[in-house]
Structure formats: structure tokens, C-alpha cells
Amino acid sequence: MAQDPARLVVLLSGRGSNFLALQQAAEEGWLGGQIAAVLSDRPDAAGLERAAAAGLDTLCVDRSRFPDRASFEHSLSVAISGFAPRLIVLAGFMRVLSADFVQAHEGQIINIHPSLLPRHRGLHTHQRVLDAGELEHGASVHLVTADLDAGPVISQVKIEVHPEDTADTLAERLLPLEHRLYPATLALLLRQPVTWSHDPIEIEGKPLVRPLRLDRDLGADGRLLRHGSG
Ligand code: GRF
């Protein structure tokens, strides 16, 4: 009997361009899953409109209507669970999730972060790369744990920093690569059993000791070209 495609719930707070890249991969049939719903903490998130336009279920759990983080996260958690997702995909979701929330969805939450983690956790990563005089920059897809942007890194894409770069030009050059990295990584994760319970995580039964690099270790369609265990 054919299995139902894995269900994903996307959480976003902003424009949702990474969500659109995931939705495109789902529509093209190679993501290995379908987006069951798009949820936001902000009613004005442009990504919500884009998701509705794509015919997806959308829901806003408006943070400003809750007195504290615990009650907000409780409602968010209930809403997510209603869609019974295999993975919860953060795509520009600008809230720090509590340890309780992460524990309740352990091993299920994935994020994309615009830096070469473990460098530059948190905000303003493009400017911080410039301030540090670094010559390379990039994006990382990682498993979300209770510590901000500190969970095991699954995959990365790198760009060179040019002398004339600004935070805006770095963001502009990186974003299209994020749009390739995120669907490729999710396609990989959805295709095979991944053991999350260890750090490093295991992919195809082997520990991932360094992140998979897009186009070198990880094909744009999510194929594993080379395992990061060696
Ligand atoms: C991306 O740069 C992503 O890496 C970060 O937030 C941004 C979201 O952009 N987590 P978008 O809303 O997907 O266009």
C-alpha cells in the first residue's frame, strides 16, 4: 500500500520566500512530503498570504494576544499537533522557542539560519560577518534544540565575502542559495530514517560529523552524494 506523504507544518513570521521554495519542491514532487499548513505568530506576515494564495491551510497564532510565552506556545503547540506533522519547519520564524516547547516536539523541529553555524547564532548575521572581517559566509540547516541556533547542523551552503559587500548584498546573494539548501535538506531527511537522539545525528546509520555541503555532499534534489562522516 502506498504511504501517505509526510506532512510538514511551516512556521514563519515574515515574507516567506523559503516557504515558497519548499512549496515549489513539494509541487514538483521531489520534496517527499507536503505542506499541511503554514502558521505564523504575526497576522501581517506576508508569507501567510502567499500560503493562502497557494491554496494551503493557514493559521495565525497571534503572539500579541497572549499574556506570556507559555500560553502562546501552548496554543501554538495545540495548533501544530492538529495537523499531525512529521516535521515542523521554521522558515523565518522570529520567536525563540522555550525548552518545554522543543521537548514536546523533540527531534521534529528544523530551522534554516543565515550563517555558518556555530558562527553567528542569533540576529544580524550578515553584518556580524562583515564586522568580524570574515572571508566566507553562508547558511545552515539545523535541528532545533533548547539552545538558540545551537542544535546539530545538518547541511550548509557557503559564499565568499567580497570587499565591497554590505549586509544587504550578502543577504541578497545568500537567499537564493537558502532556497536550494532548505528543500534539498528536507528531501534528504524525509527520504530516510534519521536518528536524532544522538549528537552527532545519524544519517543512513552513520554519524554526521560535519555538515553536508550543498552540491558537494548533498545534491540539489536531496540526494546524498557524499556522507559527512569521513
Ligand atoms: C532567511 O534569511 C532565513 O535564513 C532566516 O530568516 C530569513 C527568512 O526569509 N531564518 P524568508 O521569510 O524565508 O524570505
Quick description:
This protein is an alpha/beta fold and 230 residues long. It has 6 helices and 11 strands.
Question: Secondary-structure blueprint of this entry?
Answer:
Layout: E1 6-12, H1 17-28, E2 33-40, H2 46-53, E3 57-60, H3 69-82, E4 87-90, H4 99-104, E5 109-113, H5 125-131, E6 136-143, E7 153-160, H6 167-191, E8 194-195, E9 202-203, E10 206-207, E11 212-213
Bound molecules: 5-O-phosphono-beta-D-ribofuranosylamine (GRF).
5-O-phosphono-beta-D-ribofuranosylamine is lined by residues 12, 14-18, 47, 91-92, 112-114, 139, 178.
Structure commentary:
Helix content is 31%, strand content 23%. The protein is built from six helices and eleven strands. It has an eight-stranded mixed beta sheet, sandwiched between helices. Strands 8-9-10 form a three-stranded antiparallel beta sheet, with no helix packed on it. The structure holds 5-O-phosphono-beta-D-ribofuranosylamine. 5-O-phosphono-beta-D-ribofuranosylamine binds next to helix 1 and strand 5.
